[in-house]
Input
Amino acid sequence: MVFLMYLAAFLFPLDNFPWMVGGAYRPVSVLFILVYILVHLPEVFRLKYRRVEMYIFVILVSSILISAVQCSINHYHFSGLIDASQSILSGLVCYLGFKLFTQRNSENDKAFTTLFVWIIRGYALAVVVGLLQFVYIYVSPSSSIAQLIHLFVARDEFAMTSRVHFSFSEPSYISLHTNLFLLPAVIILKNRGLLTKGHKLIVFTFFLLSLFSLSVRYYIDIIVFIISYLLLTTSRRILLKRLLTFCAVFVVVTVLTNAIFVQNVFHLHSDHYYRMANMVKNPSEAGSDLSSQIRQTYSKIGFESFNDRPLLGYGLGNFHYAYIKHYSDINPSLLAKAQELQEAQNNYSLVTYNMYARLSAEMGLMGFFLLGLIIYLFMRTKMHNFSVLMIFLTLYSLLQFDSFALVQVFFWIAFVQSKYISELRLSGPSLSNYRNLTKTELVKHVPVESI
Output
């Protein structure tokens, strides 16, 4: 039944699926991961769990119970806690599914490699949706195209404002998929000599369309990926080659960015375009960007509210009440132009857009203890530079997302513990270079029909 995990990997890009329940983040792949768990349910209880994993589980369950008591005592709405509990449950399903896969296939590199092949193939689906959005925005905004797009993604307000966001919840999720799924899969397949022209076409088209997401975060996160990749995985032997490669990529991206945001060859006129164009032309003004200021405000309040209740916080899902308490501290001039900050007073499932700020506000010291245990779980594994890269990128992603249900995060918490990933070394002797292998030898690592 391993095909269920391959199917889940193929569907990773569908994280705002119309037929799924929940908020903006609705990854359909969770359903197939759940079925995979149910099929192998007896094995779930026989998996090898580390003591630290049990501690993490106890803290999460305890936090839900403590938060329920806090809601009752303080007469809080339970909607935030319910959302948080559902997210945690979804996250645990993902983690158990990935852990089950890694332990069942601990000696089967072929299964791991095939999974990453299907991850890249899945982004072909995202590219198709992105192309449809591009056509809808810049060629023909017909209702038939809109209905076709809606088969894959529930939210359509971004396309309506001339922003490509593929099959994701919103444009900011592009970098989450790029940094934690697409590029790592490319690196792994390239390391094993299995990156095909078809894979490269998917990646190139994806990056080209991503320029039309008009997302500041996407550009920042790609830069972070490149820098961390160079610093954490490059040896002296190939440093010059990689620098030249990235310089060439940088030149291409710079030319495209100039064509889109300075020369405006596509004749864009949306508010988000002018926002991006202004930051490209005047990088020093990026700090005054309204969207960035709004997110910074949520995060700042999250960290500041730690002092209100440092031990247990306001309770899971109760950031709304921390926000209300600190609402008067927000700069009045920012409030006057940021309607979102005003409307947030009525949102009982308010988010911080920063997991560290969320843990500060909702769990206090218990939240940081939980984070410490997760980092300890990472560090318990013997690892090489690729694992270090993925741990860094996973922890970095939490600066911009605060959901307990992010598939990417649980994927890497589980996979970094596997031998397949922990033994993967970049810029040194590869685990294998498969280009020169015979067909018989190649089948030992990945089915030929999967390449």
Observations:
- The chain has 23 helices and no strands.
